Amino acid sequence: MREYEVTIIIQSQLEAEERNQLIERVSELLVPGAQEENKPTVNEWGMRRLAYPIMKQTEGYYVLYEGSPDPERIPEIERSMQYMEDILRYMVVRKES
């Protein structure tokens, strides 16, 4: 299976508990019902200053996921993240083999 990297920027004003729930929800979205060996790796980069304001926000919480979602589900994953109000930006990239 192909490896993908998914980077999201979460709104800075979210409480830690809400942010953790969102991170878990996106992880479940990437590989639904995954066992431990198939779960995506989650790297939280933390709060960072944005290069330019997004929706009047100057900071965001960065999270990087690495995993192997089904390539046919990528458009569905992107569409779902587009409608999550707490995600400022997202990017899905296929890793080179």
Describe this structure in words.
By secondary structure, the chain is of the alpha+beta class. It has a single domain (4-94), classed as Alpha-Beta Plaits (2-Layer Sandwich). It contains two helices and four strands, in the order E-H-E-E-H-E. A four-stranded antiparallel β-sheet has the order 2-3-1-4. The longest helix is centred in the N-terminal third of the chain and has 15 residues, at 16-30. The N and C termini lie close together (10 Å). 12% of the residues are buried. The mean pLDDT is 91.
List the helices and strands and how they pair.
Layout: E1 4-11, H1 16-30, E2 41-54, E3 57-67, H2 74-82, E4 87-94
Count up the domains: 1
Number of strands: 4
For this structure, what is the CATH homologous superfamily?
Ribosomal protein S6/Translation elongation factor EF1B
**Anisotropy-based shape:** globular
Order of helices and strands: EHEEHE
Oligomer: single chain
| CATH fold descriptor | Alpha-Beta Plaits
The biggest sheet amounts to: 4 strands, antiparallel
Looking at the overall shape, the CATH architecture is: 2-Layer Sandwich
> Which consecutive residue ranges, at least 5 long each, have pLDDT under 50?
none
Q: Helix amount, in percent?
A: 10-25%
